[in-house]
Amino acid sequence: MASPNELTEQLTTLRDYIRWAVSEFTRAGIYYGHGTDNALDEALQLVLYSVAVPMGSEANLLDAQLTLIERQQVLGLIKRRVEERIPVPYITGVAWYAGLAFNVDERVLIPRSPIAELTEQGFEPWVSGRPLNRILDLCTGSGCIGIACAHYFEEASIDLADLSADALVVAESNISRYELNHRVTAIQSDVFAQLGGQVYDLIVSNPPYVDVEDLAAMPAEYQHEPAMALGSGEDGLDLCRQILREAAAYLSADGLLVVEVGNSCIALEQAFPDVAFTWLEFERGGHGVFVMTRDELLQYQSFFSE
Question: What is the pLDDT of residues 245-285, one digit of tens each?
């Protein structure tokens, strides 16, 4: 393998470094899934960030020569991605969700929930055109779901709740990023415990839901994410069970609950075989998201309380 000095002599253009990154990522067998699903998109994000070229504006710059310092910086970031298995958004400090950029670091999960697609569609047909005046993003992490809701529902007030004080620091930075302090509030809360009896028209949650077996088998990239935001008991459903038991008390009369449980959807149906969960389908991929009205939560309350 060529030395760094040899590489900086042989690779000179933006195109060269994108191609080199694709080859290195492919040879190393890195895991994609934190914003991209292939080596080229991963390379574009990392290389363009390293030379401060905005994504989507590279077409006319591909054959531009990089300075020696830029070449060294690019090689250093490619090396970190390969050797340390750090997801690109943790290197760049930015992740995209529902068409919006969010600050991220290792205090929060990297946004990737399919709920983004539902948000962009205004949660239709599930809200049936009803106004959503109060929205709760439960287990908010970076705040991406709630802040995206604020973007698409311009009149709504949104609470972002999380147990992690560290995560809420990141969420606060994203509230400030979009100048939403007047209608988006970050609250430290153990699920609903510190919400003071608030009532919401919509509760959206992407809680920890990875079971013990899947958590142990996750690629190395996931080891950089906060463990408390991933795992939730033996079957991944500890937090989800609590949400199902308690959510009705925090929903308005025609309120809606949206929860992501990912691969734990099978375990959820096995745990509650008499509950008719409504599972959503997504055009852009993703699974394991259910919707449930307040009336349905009350209907099945005896099962959730067992």
Answer: 999 999 999 999 999 999 999 999 999 999 999 999 999 88
Q: 48: domain range?
A: 4-92
* Closest C-alpha among 208, 207, 200, 209 to residue 294: 200
Residues 6+ apart with CB under 8 A from 256: 123, 126, 127, 201, 202, 203, 291, 292, 293, 294
Mean pLDDT of 4-8: 85
Asked whether residue 171 falls in the same domain as residue 200, the answer is: yes
Tell me the pLDDT tens digit for each residue of 161-183: 999 999 999 999 999 999 999 99
Boundary of a domain, candidates 74, 92, 110: 92
pTM, 2 dp: 0.93
Within 8 A by CB and 6+ apart from 159, the residues are 134, 135, 136, 137, 146, 184, 185, 186, 187, 195, 198, 200
Residues 6+ apart with CB under 8 A from 261: 207, 209, 236, 237, 240, 268, 288, 289, 290
**Residue type at 39?**
A
Angle at 230 between CA 235 and CA 288, to 5 degrees: 65
Same domain, 88 and 104: no
